[in-house]
Design brief:
Length: 127
């Protein structure tokens, strides 16, 4: 897809990768929201990469204004999943409708590997 437009008809079953369910979630949002403190395994990362490779919007927001990155941090999904989202263009500075960012959710979840990812990122920005 050379013009970087979301795929539509070439996805299996005609599904659109950024189509929303009745709850306002895209498949990427639903995936990250559903992790619920489960360790992120290779299958989850493979699905995440598939969605992102097929133009899933990493900055799509649900009805609360939350993004996939926010849910991955909130649900303690792991630094590798958060790093993959960041590499795909997820904006860590976005805030949900309550004003909380992905970093706030990481701090609240007290997930050390993801906190370390933020710390390393901040150290790189300040250097």
């Amino acid at each position: 897809n050379l013009n970087n437009q979301p795929r539509t008809s070439d996805n299996p079953g005609g599904a659109q990768v950024n189509e929303r369910n009745p709850g306002g979630e895209t498949p990427l949002l639903a995936l990250c929201k559903a992790l619920r403190r489960e360790p992120t395994g290779p299958g989850t990362l493979k699905l995440l990469r598939y969605l992102l490779d097929n133009q899933a919007d990493p900055n799509a927001q649900d009805r609360s204004g939350r993004t996939a990155l926010m849910y991955s941090c909130m649900e303690r999904a792991g630094a590798q999943l958060a790093s993959t989202l960041l590499s795909a263009g997820s904006d860590p500075s976005m805030a949900d409708y309550s004003g909380a960012s992905a970093m706030v959710y990481t701090i609240n979840a007290q997930h050390q590997p993801t906190l370390q990812l933020w710390q390393e990122g901040l150290l790189c920005l300040s250097a």
